[in-house]
Amino acid sequence: MHLTISSLLFALVLVAWVRAQADQRISQAKCEDYRKWAKINPSNCNRPSLLIQDINIRVGDYPHVAFMGWKTENDPSAYNFLSFGSLISEQYILTAAHSTRFEQKKPDIVRLGAVDLNQEDQHVKDYEVSEVITHPNYTARLAYNDIALVRLREPVSFSIGIRPVCLWDSLQMNFTWLVTTALDRTDHYSTSGQLEKFSLDIMDKSVCEQQYGPNRRLPDGMKDHQLCLLHLDQKDICQGISGSPAQISFYPKKCATYVVGIVSHARRCGGSPFPDIYTRVASYIDWIEAIVWS
């Protein structure tokens, strides 16, 4: 039997595709599933761009953003939302380890679909927290390995306002800036207002180490699993919420947002010119996949 050139080329392409699928990480496959869902369901995929100049966030712009809430002492039906996270699957939130405990308590709920905590919205839904899994090498007194997973008691239902984010799994970054989503703080313990986005400049590790200098939470300096990012508007995490994602969006071509880092540590508060330290997600892909999609 003789193969034509066209059939041979088709066979080679098919073999390459099969190999690519076999080599694909589970997080990459899941990302593709989430993108496909967004393409055929109500979403903001056709929005021309998520311009940083437009700080107002609409429902569906960042459908992975999660608010972690703790019950208030005076009113069990009310919650203090003290930290951020990112929905990365039907049942897991990715966040910073240090932001999963307040007064030695794990969060009671995770709120998804919200763009303003002061307003009721049909897209908003609260999910009870089942457990918190911190990285085994995390130590509270240090800023290293500051990453955790929050498991929800039940799987989420996707909607225009609720959809998992993709994970950036490469140590290489072909971009020079990222975006974080945060709320302005009224003080160190309270937040108010609408969810906003702020641009982040990716800084060189050596510059960051020089600016931080000796630091008790960074006794060994910056490590490869950390990123040094500067808020271009000079706002720091004391004016937002810890655990917030540093992300890059590819709209409308890919209809996907990738979380690249997680807010971990800031040197000081109040419009500081010093950069903040983020946990690099790509350094923990194996650990994340083993728990979320085992």
Q: Overview of this structure, please?
A:
This protein is α+β, with helices and mostly antiparallel strands and 294 residues long. It has four helices and 13 strands. The protein has helices spanning 5-23, 26-40, 205-212, 285-292; strands at 65-71, 79-87, 92-95, 109-112, 125-134, 148-152, 166-167, 177-182, 196-202, 226-231, 245-250, 256-265, 276-280. The protein has a six-stranded antiparallel β-barrel with strand order 1-2-3-6-5-4. Strands 8-9-10-13-12-11 form a six-stranded antiparallel β-barrel. A hairpin with a 5-residue loop joins strand 11 and strand 12 (256-265). The chain is globular, with a radius of gyration of 20 Å.
SSE topology:
Layout: H1 5-23, H2 26-40, E1 65-71, E2 79-87, E3 92-95, E4 109-112, E5 125-134, E6 148-152, E7 166-167, E8 177-182, E9 196-202, H3 205-212, E10 226-231, E11 245-250, E12 256-265, E13 276-280, H4 285-292
Parallel strand pairs: 7-12
Antiparallel strand pairs: 1-2, 1-4, 2-3, 3-6, 4-5, 5-6, 8-9, 8-11, 9-10, 10-13, 11-12, 12-13
Main location: secreted
Family: Belongs to the peptidase S1 family. CLIP subfamily.
GO molecular function: serine-type endopeptidase activity
